[in-house]
Amino acid sequence: MGMVESSVSILGGNEELYETTGRKPNPVDVHVGSRVRYRRMIIGMSQEKLGEKMNLTFQQIQKYEKGTNRIGASRLFQLSKILEVPVGYFFEDAFANSAASHPQHGLHEPAQEGLLLDFLNSREGLDLNRAFAKILDPKVRRRVIDLVRALSEEKPEAKEGQTVIEDDLG
Questions:
Q1: CA dihedral of 139, 143, 149, 154, whole degrees rounded to 10
Q2: pTM
């Protein structure tokens, strides 16, 4: 259902055109599905459990979440009740990448934004966020951020059979 065979145009408030042709999921369906996945993961519900509540298989939930299958109005309403959010939640930020409606400020980097959102929607991203939110001491939070930054820096790679020795004094 979410797959579009012919050209489909969606007009935003700024008259920007969104087109999908061929067998690609419609960008709005992908966005709505990602919001379903994000909310499901936030509340700690499995695809299987959500499928049971909706009388669907977990595979159907996967297709909804990927935007492969379009979510109909009655299903979206059902999802909003099960996931305890208003229907509009699924459309929040749907047109955030629209340059005309949202001017870029400062060093806007949309590619990195996508990677960040992908991470935040992942199991690891949610686990990290939950654990971090439980840290109440601001100094400890700062040290955790510093630790993660230090761990994420690229280290020189050793050639086969060599050991990398780093100077920790600087």
A1: 160
A2: 0.56
Neighbouring residues of 50: CB distance < 8 A, sequence distance ≥ 6:
40, 58, 61, 82, 83
Percent helix / strand / coil, the chain, rounded to 5: 50, 5, 45
Q: What is the pLDDT of residues 83-108, one digit of tens each?
A: 999 999 999 887 765 444 444 434 44
8 Å CB contact between 76 and 64: no
Residue 79: is it exposed, middle or buried by C-beta count within 10 angstroms (0-12/13-18/19+)?
buried
With b meaning 16 or more CB within 10 Å and e meaning fewer, what string describes 18-41? bebeeeebbbbbbbbbbbbbbbbb
Burial of 71 (0-12, 13-18, 19+ CB in 10 A): buried
- pLDDT per residue over 132-156, tens digit each? 888 889 899 899 888 888 888 866 5
Residue 112: strand pairing partners? none
Domain boundaries, the chain: 1-95, 109-154
Tallying the residues shown for the chain, one arrives at: 170
Q: Which CATH superfamily is domain 1-95 in?
A: lambda repressor-like DNA-binding domains (1.10.260.40)
Q: What is the dihedral of CA 30, 37, 58, 130, to 10 degrees?
A: 160
